[in-house]
Design goal:
Largest sheet: 6 strands, antiparallel
Shape: elongated
Strand order of the largest sheet: 8-5-4-1-11-12
CATH architecture: Alpha-Beta Complex
CATH class: Alpha Beta
CATH superfamily: Transglutaminase-like
Number of helices: 3
Radius of gyration: 21 Å
Order of helices and strands: EEEEEEEEHHEEEEHEE
Number of domains: 1
Helix content: 10-25%
Length: about 190
């Protein structure tokens, strides 16, 4: 429909798409002390989810948010009392502006949520035992113009993952004395 009105529109596929039902930016899984899954949340991770993007000027949000906007025709949660999602600015999602209207927090979680596993004790106490910050929002894709090739648009939604590397550096290089090799943790982009 939007294309017929002359508005640029494309289909987007997000692999490992989070469905954050309580908008806490975390996909929580609860287990008991024996490892049995407890169904205490509606959060889930889908193999993929598909939505549309359309190119809009955003006078309501300011020109910083012009460009591709997420419109989900199959919203899974109510927004302002009805099932709707968008138009959420992809720029807002990338910048983490989750307090904007138009469901930016829901879309942010769909591509950035952490997957967290908790042990839920009988006394209602819980303990985090596992967290994966890199599982969600992989290979966010659209179809290339004029061909069936995939175009990766992940960088429109999130900055590259920060990964940690380590290496040894000898302090003796800096101090003319013999010292133990030290392991230094370096963050690289």
């Amino acid at each position: 429909v939007l294309r017929s009105l002359g508005i640029p529109t494309r289909v987007i596929t997000n692999f490992n798409s989070a469905h954050d039902s309580n908008i806490n930016l975390s996909i929580d899984k609860y287990i008991d002390i024996s490892g049995k899954t407890l169904h205490l949340t509606e959060d889930s991770v889908w193999n993929f989810h598909v939505w549309n993007e359309s190119w809009f000027i955003r006078r309501d949000l300011g020109s910083f948010y012009d460009g591709w906007q997420v419109l989900d025709a199959t919203p899974q949660e109510r927004s302002k009392g009805i099932y709707q999602c968008g138009p959420a600015s992809t720029r807002a999602i990338k910048e983490g502006d989750v307090n904007l209207d138009y469901d930016s927090s829901f879309v942010f979680a769909a591509v950035n949520a952490d997957c967290v596993t908790w042990i839920h004790y009988s006394n209602k106490r819980k303990e985090r035992i596992y967290s994966n910050t890199r599982k969600i929002g992989k290979f966010i894709s659209t179809k290339a113009v004029g061909t069936n090739s995939r175009v990766d648009v992940t960088a429109n939604y999130k900055y590259p993952e920060v990964r940690e590397i380590s290496f040894k550096i000898s302090y003796s290089q800096y101090k003319n004395s013999l010292m133990d090799d030290r392991k230094i943790l370096v963050t690289a982009v």
